[in-house]
């Protein structure tokens, strides 16, 4: 069963989603791409269609340790408009389970009150829309059970934080080394 679930809504940011999926799988952590639509094929904000692993109704939330939201527009508003996902995000937050969001997607967590009293980051133009979160201008912010990141350019660090949170710093560092991240030439 998957330890991580990442959600695809029409208009998601494909690089943010795929970077996380790629790196998490390299760390040998089970992650499933979950469509919030009625079809497995979901088209991104840049018109790239990717086939999800499961429909939302098929996802196993009992086994999941973390729920992950990629950003993108209109992906982020579409995630926020999907009440069954918002219910699961709220349920996970109340249980102290892990949540992660990047780019515009941390605003979903903010609008649900999940970021209340938490430090978070997001794409700069969405900082005023975090609502209940305290905006921090850093590539990745980890505050308790919440991991947030700024955008496509910070996704390797974002995925690394997710891996570190699930499997430890050594596992995250090994994946970064294998992909030649921050290698000195």
What does this structure look like?
The structure is a single chain. This protein has helices at about 15-25, 75-80, 85-95, 105-110, 155-165, 170-180; strands at about 5-10, 30-35, 40-45, 50, 55, 65-70, 100, 120, 135, 140-145, 145-150. It has about 180 residues and is an alpha/beta fold. It has a single domain, classed as Class I glutamine amidotransferase (GATase) domain (Rossmann fold). The strands form 3 sheets. The protein has a 7-stranded mixed β-sheet with strand order 5-2-1-6-7-11-10, with helices on both faces. A hairpin with a 2-residue loop joins strand 10 and strand 11 (about 145-150). Helix 1 runs parallel beside helix 5 and helix 5 packs antiparallel against helix 6 (about 170-180). About 50% of the residues are buried.
Quick tags:
185 residues; alpha/beta; Rossmann fold; 7-stranded mixed beta sheet; two-stranded antiparallel sheet; 33% helix; globular
Quick rundown:
This protein has 185 residues and is an alpha/beta fold. The chain has six helices and eleven strands. Strand 3 (41-43) and strand 4 form a beta hairpin.
**Could you give the distance between the termini?**
40 Å
Question: Could you state the CATH homologous superfamily?
Answer: Class I glutamine amidotransferase (GATase) domain
**Could you give the count of β-strands?**
11
Q: List segments where confidence is low: pLDDT < 50 over at least 5 consecutive residues.
A: none
- Approximate strand percentage: 15-25%
Average pLDDT metric: 96
